[in-house]
Every structure is written in C-alpha cells, then in structure tokens.
Amino acid sequence: MSRAPFQVLVLPYRITPDNAVFYALFKREPSTGGYWQGIAGGGENCESPLDAAKRETYEEAGIDPSNEYMKLDSYAMVPVANVCGFRWGDDVLVIPEYCFGVKVEEEQLQLSYEHTEYRWLSYDSAMEILHWDSNKCALWELNFRVRRGMRASSDNVEDLIQDSPGFEPGNAPKTR
After folding, report:
1. Residues 67, 96: contact at Cβ < 8 Å?
2. CATH number assigned to the domain comprising residue 54
3. Residue 66 pLDDT more than 80?
C-alpha cells in the first residue's frame, strides 16, 4: 500500500451515566518515543482523512468504524521527519494532520503493538501528559464541543458547567 501525504489524529472519548467525560490516550512504544498521544497514523492509497481515521482507530484500539466520529476544526502541519521521513521527495517537508473525536461506549479497548498501554483520563489529566501541542489543541476543542453538546441537552446546566474543566474558552492550551 502507498502512504498518502497526510496524518490523522483520533481522540476516543466516552461519557459515563453521571456525565463524566473521559478521553483515551495511548503510550507509544519506547523505540518510537514512549510518549502519550491520541491515535495517530497516515492515510493509505486514496483514503479520505475520515476513512484513514476509522481504519487507524480500528487497528490501534479495536474501535468499530461505525462509531460516531466528529471532525474537528483543529488542524496542524507536522514535519515529515517526525512522521515517516522524506518518502514524498526532498521538497515535501510538512504534511497536514486532520483531527477527529470518536465516541465509544465500551471502556475496554484492544491495544495494538504500537502502544504499551492506554488510559481513560479526565480532561485535565489528559492535558498534563499529552506530548504534542497539536494533540492538546484537538483535545481542548473536542472537550469544548462535547461539553457544549451535553449542556444543550441537559436539564441541570449549572452542574455541567461546574463539573466541566476546560469548558471556559479562556482555558485553551497555549500554542505559542
């Protein structure tokens, strides 16, 4: 298969019956950095970014492609040196990273060989251990969108806002 010149980032999340939101993060193998991140990978052949996100999420975590995916506005350009090298020639120095959230019901995920462990974390705990700024930005956006959606459908808005770290727009991650 031919590697397409883009990257995807997928952040799985689940909402508990008491409206707590948790995000799954994955620890890379030590030989590939050993850091915490969302599910990441590249497109293959003529895949769309969404198709690549669904495939990568299934391969790395066993999440069914029929789950509800949310395309995020978060977008980054990442150096090819941090992804897969100069496979598209000397002039392709950066490729786009498209970001998605995926809602899951099951707590148990199937870990691939690319990761040594995964954890379900609160927003604040996830932000503390994420390695890449692009992952932090995407997590902030996803958390905001999920919380806003919960607020719109909740009868008890005050409880949601009080229990929603990162909900306020001023809590966005610093990117500069």
Report:
1. no
2. 3.90.79.10
3. yes
